[in-house]
Every structure is written in structure tokens, then in C-alpha cells.
Amino acid sequence: MNFSRRTAAVAAIAGTASLALVLSGCASDGDNGGSSDEPITLTITTFGTMGLDGLYAQYEKDHPNITIKATNIDTGGNALTDWKTKQASGGLPDVQAVEEGWLGSVMEVSDTFTDLRDYGADDIKGNWVDWKVQQATDSDGRIIGYGTDIGPEGLCYNGKLFEAAGLPSDRDAVAELFGGSSATWDKFFEVGKQYHDASGKAFYDQSGFLWNAFVNQQDEGYYTADGELNVEGNSTLKNFWLQLADAQQAGLSANQAQWDWGKGQAFVDGTFSVFVCPGWMLGVVKGNTEAAGGDASTGWDFADVFPGGASNWGGSFLTVPTSSKHPKEAAALAEWLTAAQQQVAAFQAAGTFPSNIEAQSDPGVTGPNDLGAFFNDAPVGEILGSRAQGVTAQFKGPDDAIIQEQVFGPPRTALDAGEADGETTWNQAIELLNQLVG
């Protein structure tokens, strides 16, 4: 995976009233009781739009002796830097959110995280999808994190732009257009060329998110399952990189700045018409569209299809660093925040699709909601549940995030800008790999 996921600039999606309705049923769900009545302040660091901010007040209400001091960092990349800095120098919070893409680095120092089995993790590990628990389990069998969300990917598209280009706009027809359950990247780029030929416009915002999705779809990404680097000499990855270069030359990439999109303007002015969307990205699309003056009438929709099959981008965990002075209470907070009803509330607030099995089928996820209303009344929870089928855990090595952002980031930028061709930018990436990772 790992692009710096989510931005703090995205407003919460659910209104205060709808969140309160969900929270009214949250008081006892997933709460192991904490400990004494001694006044305690618990610190928690999260990032981006995890959908947790509206939950803290309820926990404080149910636990009058506990005060939660929350810090939210704007992006996953900045949060990773913050964690690494404090991991080395001290100052970690009681509860630390960890992103999937950091797992390689985290597992190298897993003994600096509390083994949550000491606080009942073995009794509740069946609450989450199996592969999520596996990701949070180190080589000694220690469970060091409770899963928040997962990031199954579907395809966001602008139905109005599709219609104008002579393509279908109905989401079922769009899914079939891309190949349905047999959707491939070749078909994706073929449709992109059809769109570009008809409209004269770019098809997708930039190549980086497509690259990210493709890497995540492989059985082995930047590392093999036994921890060896898997980039140089990897013909599968190189061939897709060259395919991205061909698509750029064909005018399919809009060369947008990641996490900016002209302050959201590109989502409303027809700059591009498709966008890869894990669950949490739905809130990013909605927030950026609204920031630029758009709304549901802008035309964005969400289809149950993804080129190349199942892909997971992102998802996080709540961990308890061993430096916490209140590990029992911190573990109780992490457990409560990741229990079913709280994951439902987070989904309604930010589109973060639950890793909790019970939450995935909750009407608050599968039924109508404000997020789905923005996407032409799409059943976003049902679609994400469908897209989660077939996702497996990919091993993430210690420098996975560095490879994604610092090794492939600059060459990808040059590729999208048309400054260098596919072979040149691939060789640039390999050179950076040898410099930064070895």
C-alpha cells in the first residue's frame, strides 16, 4: 500500500444528530470496564478521517474518571513520521493509531507495543475478519493492535461525464462496462481511451493511486512473503508501470497533485471522471467536492467493480505502546473504539468500512446513509462488503512506505507530467530503491 491516506481537511460526513443516534447504543458495546475510579487522562493519536472524533465524548460520559486528550494528524505520512520520531525519543500516546502500510516497521519493534492478549484479546479476536487479526499478530503470537477499518476498493465515477461521453451511467451497467467480476486493467485502460476519444478529457486524476491498487492486488508486493525485496527484476510490476506510461501518453492521466486536486476543483469541473475508492476515500471525494462548491448533483457514483479484482488500500489499528502508564485503561479504550457499534458510527462519519464482522452487516452500514446519498443513493456499505470478498493480507516489509512514497513517488510525478517515459522513470525508481533501501 501506502500513500498518505485521508486528509484532515475533509469534513465529517454524518451530522451530529445522526451520530448521536448511533452512539446512544454504544455505551456497553466492547467495553471491558477499564479499572478504578482514579482520575486518568488517556492520550490518543490518530490521523486523517478515521471517524473516531465523535466517539470520545461518549466514552468520557460512560467513564467519568477518564479524560481523553486526542491528537489528529492530517495525513498518514505525517503520522508515520510523528510515530517514528516519538518511538525513538519518547512521548508516545497511550493509544497510537497505526496504519496498515506501517506494519513492516511496527513489527520490527513489536515488543514496544503492549500484548493485548494480557487484556482479553484472545477472547474477542473473532470479532474481526481473520486477516486483520493476522496483520496485528507478531511472530511471537502477540496481538498488538485492534483493527479499526479496512479499505476494500470500488470504482467511483461521474455518471454525468460518462453520459456526455456516450458511456452508460447506471452503476450496474458501469460495472459490466469494466468487465464485472472479470474486470481487468487492460479493460480499464480500454474504457479510458474510449472516454478520452469521446470527451477529449483525462480519465483519472493521476497514476499513483492506480499503481498503489495494482501493487496491493499482488500476492506479494514490494516484499516477498519471507521478507525479501521484490521490486528489481519484477516483470509484473514493471509491465504495469509501462502500461501507466502508455496511458499517460494517451492523455488518460490528469496529472493532479495527490491530496489536493486544485482544492477540490477537479472533482467538480470535469477534469477526470473515475477515481479509485477504498471506503475511507468516499469521504475524501465528498469532502473535496463540497469544498469546491459541488454536491450530489455533481454526478459522482460508486460501482461494485474494480480492475484486476479484489484490492485493499489502507485500514488501521489501535495499539497501546508499552510506555503507557495506564495500559489497562488504554486497552479498554482501544477495544471500545473498535467494537461493532463504534465502527458503525465511524463508517457513518467517514466512510471507513468496518473490519469488525458484526458491524459489516449492521443496518447502519448496509442501509441508506448520508454518504450513499451523495453518491447517487449508492448502497455504499453493501458495495464495500462485496468488494471485501477475496481480499487477503499482503506482507508489508519494513520499508514498504518508503518504497511507495520516496522510491516510486518522484518517478511517478515525472511520468504523469510527461517529463520522462516509462523505461526512464522505472530506472529512476530502481536507482532510488538502491539508494534509500538497498
From TrEMBL:
<protein>
    <submittedName>
        <fullName>Carbohydrate ABC transporter substrate-binding protein</fullName>
    </submittedName>
</protein>
<feature type="signal peptide">
    <location>
        <begin position="1"/>
        <end position="27"/>
    </location>
</feature>
<keyword id="KW-0732">Signal</keyword>
<dbReference type="InterPro" id="IPR006059">
    <property type="entry name" value="SBP"/>
</dbReference>
<dbReference type="InterPro" id="IPR050490">
    <property type="entry name" value="Bact_solute-bd_prot1"/>
</dbReference>
<dbReference type="Pfam" id="PF13416">
    <property type="entry name" value="SBP_bac_8"/>
</dbReference>
